[in-house]
Design brief:
Elements: E1 26-33, E2 39-48, E3 51-60, E4 63-77, E5 83-94, E6 108-114, E7 119-120, E8 124-126, E9 137-138, E10 141-144, H1 152-155, H2 164-172, H3 183-186, E11 190-197, H4 205-226, E12 229-235, H5 242-251, E13 259-265, E14 268-269, E15 280-282, E16 296-298, H6 299-307, E17 313-319, H7 346-353, E18 356-363, E19 373-374, E20 377-378, H8 379-391, H9 402-416, E21 431-438
Parallel strand pairs: 11-12, 11-13, 13-17, 17-18
Antiparallel strand pairs: 1-2, 1-10, 2-3, 3-4, 4-5, 5-6, 6-7, 6-8, 8-9, 14-15, 15-16, 18-21, 19-20
Helix pairs in contact: 8-9
Length: 439
């Protein structure tokens, strides 16, 4: 389709951008040229909409250059009704030697949605900060990379052999020996996964179902990777009730080296005279039923129940509102999504789940706030999976911890509820209690 000029007024119409297939990172190659016919090759590392960078390699005046550019993604609809997604570059830093007069103007990459073909077109690029469509150039190629097919020679085009990113990338691509998984150490450990979801609700049921599938798959894969026994307990559909949740919690009998994960995905609320900061879970299958203490449960009740059972690690998450009863905040449009892979550093995964002891309690919204849901899932649930996978990525720097995971979850969910990503959302800030030691 023909490019449309961007103006600041367009950005008042931004909607929510959601990554459908969540992962630790994805790798893309984008080749493009400028008006001077200089050819560029970009190696894009994409974690999520606010964490991405591109190594851009090019030759100019017989000098080979590599520059690192930080990227963020924004999405929206312009005044003519055209959907777009855009990567905006900033903070260019030369990786190769830099002369005093050498500069790099960060590039924009822009996708438009073709309503006729019902798909996203080939991206345009420009380094014009005014985004004049006369300066748009269609990229030469844009493709997803499989890390397992990349060679050391390929990586050296973009990374110096002294860089920590280079060694992390080699490890992710299988170019250095992977640590053997000590399965025998973890066979006696069990991962108990409890999911409570209001999948029948007419307003958020579809969103809850998506999260249910994603979360069940995620923790099963975590268990498989660690070599632990996976035990699953699901309360959803017509089985949703306080009695069923209590029975499930009472039946849990974890060992001293086990992990218990409890996730609630549904409506939440608080009583007007409630002093507890944590939301109550709405455990009705029909909104026509009475809402009272017998049809709901405070998330803190789950915390106290599980904390008394002696598991090594307890994780309790509530993706629900924490405001007045009968709020059903739903938003979100589908935008360009990156296809991504789960490339996780097993040693970081082990540290989080096998070398940690304590309890984590977190909810999507503070007192008086709602938590937002999209057709692709709740903002908090999506952000949790993004944060977890970013934390265990080969390319993540620093030491992995649950404090980081939960802090990132709350931060990313809050960002998704800003006007930058959601036109009709109010801010959700989230709450957390993390008491975990690593050994």
């Amino acid at each position: 389709m023909k490019p449309i000029s961007f103006h600041r007024i367009f950005f008042s119409l931004l909607f929510l951008f959601i990554i459908l297939q969540l992962s630790s990172q994805s790798l893309y190659e984008i080749k493009f040229s400028d008006k001077q016919k200089i050819q560029y090759s970009g190696f894009l590392v994409f974690f999520h909409e606010t964490n991405a960078y591109m190594r851009i390699a090019y030759t100019n005046e017989n000098v080979y250059n590599v520059v690192n550019v930080t990227y963020t993604m924004s999405n929206g609809v312009n005044s003519q009704g055209d959907k777009y997604s855009m990567l905006t570059g900033s903070n260019p830093i030369f990786i190769t030697s830099k002369s005093t007069n050498r500069k790099y103007n960060p590039d924009y990459f822009i996708w438009f949605y073709d309503y006729t073909d019902k798909k996203w077109g080939q991206p345009y690029t420009t380094d014009d900060s005014l985004l004049n469509p006369d300066n748009y150039i269609t990229v030469d190629s844009y493709l997803k990379l499989d890390p397992k097919t990349l060679t050391d020679e390929y990586l050296r085009r973009y990374f110096g052999n002294y860089e920590s990113e280079y060694f992390s990338m080699k490890k992710m691509c299988g170019l250095t020996p992977e640590e053997t998984n000590p399965v025998s150490t973890y066979k006696s450990s069990q991962l108990h996964f409890v999911l409570v979801a209001n999948t029948l609700d007419p307003s958020i049921g579809t969103s809850c179902t998506v999260d249910e599938t994603n979360l069940r798959n995620e923790f099963r894969q975590v268990s498989d990777a660690l070599g632990t026994t996976f035990r699953e307990y699901v309360v959803d559909g017509y089985s949703l009730s306080r009695e069923k949740v209590l029975a499930t919690l009472n039946a849990l009998s974890p060992g001293s080296n086990d992990i218990v994960v409890f996730v609630y995905r549904g409506h939440g609320f608080r009583w007007k005279d409630q002093n507890d900061d944590w939301p109550r879970m709405d455990l009705r299958t029909s909104t026509y039923s009475a809402i009272n203490d017998n049809s709901s449960m405070n998330l803190s009740e789950v915390y106290h129940s599980l904390n008394s059972k002696g598991a090594r690690l307890n994780i309790i998450l509530g993706d629900c509102c924490n405001s007045e009863i009968n709020r059903s905040p739903v938003t979100g449009n589908n935008y360009l999504t990156f296809q991504v892979d789960n490339n996780s550093d097993l040693s970081k995964l082990r540290k989080l789940f096998m070398n940690s002891k304590g309890t984590i309690l977190s909810a999507a919204a503070q007192k008086g706030e709602v938590s937002w849901a999209s057709p692709q899932g709740g903002l908090y649930s999506i952000s949790f999976l993004q944060a977890l996978r970013e934390e265990i990525s080969y390319l993540s720097s620093g030491s992995s911890s649950w404090e980081n995971v939960i802090a990132k979850t709350i931060s990313m969910a809050r960002l998704k509820s800003t006007t930058q990503f959601c036109s009709n959302c109010t801010l959700q800030n989230g709450i957390k209690y993390v008491s975990v030691i690593n050994y």
